[in-house]
Amino acid sequence: MSETKAPYGEPQRARLTRQGQITVPKAVREALDAKPGDELFFDQRGEEMLVRHVRRKSILDFAGLAADTAPAAALTKERLVQAVETAVGEAYQAKLQRMVDADTAEAAS
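^ that's the sequence the OP posted. Answer follows.
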């Protein structure tokens, strides 16, 4: 296997633990801008292994996504609490209904 110099300098090395884990060298993490929670994918390419970095999505990545469909009126704390309570209440009611339906089906059989 030939070693290719990485853009961050010398080729980097990591040691495999008994549990099959490695610590990604700091220079590699910095070059990839990898942060805790990000994923690294390993793709075999013949005799070599390609490491691909996929950044973990943050809720902030979705900020403003639906800004053009947002209501014109400002969302007050009270309206937000009411919307959450309504959604939770509806989800709870749906769960209760599924439980009743399951009990009814079980009693019928």
